[in-house]
Amino acid sequence: MRADTPVAPTTLDAGERRRARAFAQDAVRNRYVAGHAALRRLLAARLGVPPRQVALTREPCPVCGGPHGRPTVVGGTPFFSLAYSGGLCLIALADTPVGVDMERIPPSGVVSGLAADLHPVERAELAALPEDERPLAFARAWVRKEAYLKGLGTGLARGLSVDYVGTGMAPAECLEGWTIADVAVDSGRVAAIAARRC
């Protein structure tokens, strides 16, 4: 969905409205409001309640136990994940934990700086590619990994070097209990979804 379309914030709860007001840039604020309003409408349709009555909370962080883990519906399901990139928003709903991520393909200079944080096999895959192919391959690995870490509920606190998701045309199939798939978006971006298998 386009996330830069102005949407009345009446469907958001007090915490979401407070966070929206904190954004200094109108475009970022509008994107946040549009994305969260769309998420609430989708959750409301699944739960059979008005969007404003969807009660959201955060699970404890799996790493430190703090109150900043995966956002979730009070009561647990459906699970959801949300990602922004520019004026686009990607939302996933599932009956099991799920994560999504979407990013612009970075310039080569950014890739060389961040690639060192990836899994050793991913670093080797990138190093074996011609330089002009590295940005897309890096971006694929990044969104797959970020989607998986969102699904786990750890976010980047787990570290980018722990899990192998692959840089190739298809995600690696080695994360026990999880499925990762690429999501088609426009030509300047890549996206992925990770869902825990039942």
Describe the structure.
By secondary structure, this protein is α+β, with helices and mostly antiparallel strands. The protein folds into two domains: 1-54, no CATH class; 100-196, Ribosomal Protein L22, Chain A (Alpha-Beta Complex), CATH 3.90.470. Helix content is 33%, strand content 21%. The protein has a three-stranded antiparallel sheet, covered by helices on one side. A two-stranded antiparallel ribbon has the order 1-2. A two-stranded antiparallel ribbon has the order 3-4. Helix 1 (14-22) runs antiparallel to helix 2. It is globular. The model is unreliable at 1-6 (pLDDT under 50).
The CATH architecture of the largest domain can be named as Alpha-Beta Complex
Q: Which structural class matches the secondary elements?
A: alpha+beta
- Broad CATH class of the largest domain: Alpha Beta
The SSE string, one letter per element, is HHEEEEEHHHEE
Poorly predicted tracts of residues: 1-6
Q: Major β-sheet, in short?
A: 3 strands, antiparallel
**What Rg is obtained from the alpha carbons, in whole angstroms?**
17 Å
- Strands of the largest sheet, in order across it? 5-7-6
What is the number of independent domains?
Answer: 2
Strand elements, count: 7
This entry's quaternary arrangement is single chain
